[in-house]
Amino acid sequence: MAESPKFYETLFDFLNITELAPIAFHLLQRLPISKKIYDEVLGISRFTTKEELDLESIFKFENHYSYFYKLTIISYLRESEE
Prior knowledge:
The structure is a single chain. The chain is mostly helical and 82 residues long. The protein has one domain. The chain is built from five helices and no strands. The longest helix is centred in the last third of the chain and has 18 residues, at 64-81. The protein is globular and about 40 Å long.
């Protein structure tokens, strides 16, 4: 189930529901990183200029939970480079 893109989509949909967001985020933190989101964040490195980089489309600042989840992936990538 944790390998299914639809499963992660559903969890991210739950992040937009106030009553479910904390529970969905808690679960996301315990699952392997979403491959789709990981690839999106990893794709940031392909941009060569600040003008090409559209952080709003990558992070989709729809809620602080999904934003924090993506920042966690960036932190993971930075740590793995060291």
